[in-house]
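Ticket closed. Logging final result for GNAT family acetyltransferase.
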Amino acid sequence: MFMRTERLFLRPAWSEDAPAIARAIAAPEIVRNLARAPWPYGLAEAEQFVALPQDRKAPHFLVQLPGEGVIGSAGFGRQGEDVEIGYWIAREHWGQGYATEAARALIDLARMIGHRRLVAGHFVDNPASGRVLHKAGFVPTGTVAMRHSLARGEDAPLVEFACELEDQPAPFEWRRAA
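Final structure:
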């Protein structure tokens, strides 16, 4: 599955993407804010990521900026009974709204897939991710829970968010690319 937003192209990862992924994510300030990524994160970890199978109800994508290449990743995962979104954007592309744009595309796709609710979270020491979630339409649940961060090697407090898809209008239109 491929998605196009106003500025981005979201697509599956292919084996030849591993070097670009490893370069884009190669900063501890990115990886420490992800639950499932190890640090250090190198080519071997990127190769493992591109080899992950796609779940039709919870796909994951590379975020590509036309003319720039791979600038991040966004997708769904399973968190217990819930479907969770996650994302990361390369450091040099922070502050330009790409994470919010990708998150909004995921919300719209979740509706199409048939999900009624999404969850997400950000570590307490990463408030910028909370602003992304808020702009995308998520609301804090009022819960701060401990969540393991593989890169940190420990549990850290995570602010939990949810998005009730039936209560929210579609954030914007995206086109399914052929």
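The longest strand covers residues 69-79. No further action required.
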